[in-house]
Specification:
Layout (H helix, E strand, L loop, with lengths): L13 E2 L3 E3 L6 E3 L16
Antiparallel strand pairs: 1-2, 2-3
Amino acid sequence: MNTTHCPRCHNELDEGPIMYRCAHCRRAVFAADLENEYVPRHPVAA
């Protein structure tokens, strides 16, 4: 089984396959948006 992770908090998502829910941050994410979700990277110290 392929696990899917929340773009915001990186915990495992449940439900699906069209809409996933994150139990940790209570966010709903559509499957089509998982690969397109903007997640800012942490700044790298220069």
